[in-house]
Design goal:
Layout lengths: L3 E6 L2 E6 L4 E8 L14 E4 L7 H14 L6 E6 L5 H14 L3 E7 L2 H11 L3 E5 L8 E8 L7 H13 L12 E3 L5 H7 L13 E5 L8 H8 L3 E5 L18 H10 L3 E5 L6 E5 L7 H14 L7 E5 L4 H9 L3 E5 L3 H11 L3 E3 L5 E3 L8 H15 L3 H4 L7 E8 L3 H8 L2 H14 L3 E7 L5 E8 L2 H19 L4 E3 L1
Parallel strand pairs: 3-19, 5-6, 5-7, 6-9, 10-11, 10-12, 14-15, 14-16
Antiparallel strand pairs: 1-2, 2-3, 4-8, 7-8, 12-13, 16-17, 18-20, 18-21, 19-20
Helix pairs in contact: 1-2, 1-4, 8-11, 14-15
């Protein structure tokens, strides 16, 4: 290793070989009880009518956010997805904001990328998106978006949690807010998303299956693709409050894949319930890995002269072969901690306009503020047609390295932390670093939600990957006293 760059952030320490641009060692440390007991990197989530996804919690959250955050315009926006509990939580949040003297703009059912994109133009201090994303209808969640359209920071959510826990709200009988409905709130979002389309009918000649997950894109996605000239076959576009993500969408692609093959479509596109995640399959029904989509988006924008900063951002769990492919295209690949919010932070830092997670969140910041399935789908579909090839002829863009993973679970948090600090474990990590340098990647993570340490190893060489994975995980297995669970 000729030079090592060290980036210390909230979640850990990242090391990479800047001579080859091949990432070889990561630590992502997610400590317990970091001040946010309920809110994670993307809001709070749970079963509807079970704490914290109760009307009472939503009411108090509205009052707390109204008093702590809504100080400038005294206005907040509320949006939701199609699940049945959305109206209940919307009503409770609205009541809380109103009680705190805040006027509420009710956006209704809109995609999360629409809520984040629209927020800066609404003249509000914040927006609340009520959604549990790809989860089943029984769940729901609350995402907090600041006035600029970005997700709340940990410090902001910690303040709100503390206020809810204190349950001491100073309400003024002379300051009570009202509610205003915003008709066709998603129209502005659609107009901006269409800027990702080159020409009036750039999708003419495309035959595509669209799985809308019975969620927020049930109407918008088919209308947009049809207006741009595509021939569409639509499934999962009849939401009834209880069928969001049910055997459809990004988490259940079986029907999409079957439909693509039966309809002789050129590709299939599935989104999740709130529209910030995309999964794609080719004409043969082969599902594309998210890293392949990240690579394709970066390559397309590079070829069109639209890739800002000549940089693409991916997370530390993306395959190292992604870096290798992008480097071969003359593109720098920068890594962030896991979580869309951290991808966006790195994009801003490096002036990039393409970023994503292998799980399917794709961020194209020229068109929006967050992961956006529709704009990613538009860019991908146009790139496919421009190539003149079949999807199966284009993908995979690169052969991914073999990935091995071992999870070691401990009885307590204290036992986990003690195992992590064991001299023999640290020695095993450093030896792994030397062994895979220039040949792959090792990732060690302490879970932020349970007493578990994960060891990930990537390499083109299966024997090398298995050897390194076994050597590191065997130390943890002895310390934990349980058999380590190994995954491929």
């Amino acid at each position: 290793v000729t030079s090592v760059e060290v980036d210390i952030c909230r979640l850990g320490l990242v090391l990479f070989d800047s001579a080859t641009m091949m990432i070889f060692m990561f630590y992502q440390v997610e400590e317990f009880d970091m001040g946010n007991k309920l809110f994670g990197t993307d809001g709070v989530r749970g079963v509807a009518n079970v704490y914290p996804m109760t009307a009472e919690f939503a009411l108090k959250l509205g009052m707390a956010a109204g008093q702590l955050i809504c100080r400038k315009t005294r206005r907040a926006a509320v949006a939701r997805d199609t699940r049945i509990s959305g109206e209940m939580l919307e009503a409770a949040l609205t009541a809380g904001f109103n009680a705190a003297g805040v006027t509420v703009l009710k956006l209704g059912v809109v995609p999360t990328p629409a809520a984040t994109m629209l927020t800066p133009s609404l003249g509000v201090d914040m927006t609340v998106m009520i959604t549990a994303s790809h989860n089943p209808y029984q769940d729901n969640g609350i995402k907090l978006i600041n006035a600029d359209g970005d997700k709340f920071s940990d410090a902001e959510t910690a303040r709100i949690e503390a206020a809810i826990a204190a349950d001491d709200f100073k309400l003024n009988p002379d300051e009570i807010g009202v509610s205003e409905a915003v008709p066709d709130a998603a129209a502005g979002y659609v107009d901006k998303a269409l800027k990702a389309a080159n020409g009036e009918t750039p999708l003419k000649g495309l035959r595509v299956v669209l799985d809308c997950a019975n969620g927020v894109f049930s109407k918008i996605l088919p209308e947009v693709f049809k207006s741009l000239g595509a021939g569409i076959i639509v499934i999962g576009n009849e939401p009834n409050g209880k069928n969001i993500n049910l055997n459809c969408g990004s988490q259940h692609t079986e029907k999409m894949i079957e439909t693509v093959k039966n309809a002789h479509a050129q590709l299939g596109i599935a989104v999740d319930g709130d529209g910030d995640r995309i999964i794609v399959c080719d004409e043969q029904g082969n599902r594309l890995d998210g890293d392949q989509i990240i690579a394709f988006l970066g390559k397309c924008l590079k070829e069109e002269g639209k890739l800002r900063g000549n940089t693409v951002v991916a997370t530390i769990v993306s395959n190292p072969a992604l870096d290798r492919f992008l480097n071969g295209c003359g593109i720098q690949c920068v890594r962030s901690a896991v979580g869309e919010r951290y991808v966006i932070e790195e994009m801003k830092k490096h002036g990039a306009n393409v970023g994503g997670e292998e799980s399917g969140h794709m961020v194209l910041s020229d068109y929006g503020k967050t992961g956006d399935a529709m704009t990613a789908a538009l860019v991908l579909a146009q790139g496919l047609l421009k190539s003149g090839k079949k999807m199966s002829e284009l993908f995979p863009l690169f052969e991914p390295m073999l990935r091995l993973r071992a999870d070691s679970k401990f009885a307590t948090k204290e036992a986990m932390l003690a195992a992590f600090e064991l001299p023999e474990f640290q020695a095993a990590i450093h030896q792994a670093e030397k062994t895979v340098a220039g040949k792959g990647k090792v990732l060690v993570r302490k879970s932020g939600t349970e007493p578990k340490i994960q060891v990930w190893v990537w390499s083109d060489d299966r024997d090398l990957a298995e050897k390194v994975n076994d050597e590191v995980s065997s130390v943890l297995e002895k310390a934990a006293g349980f058999e380590t669970k190994k995954l491929v």
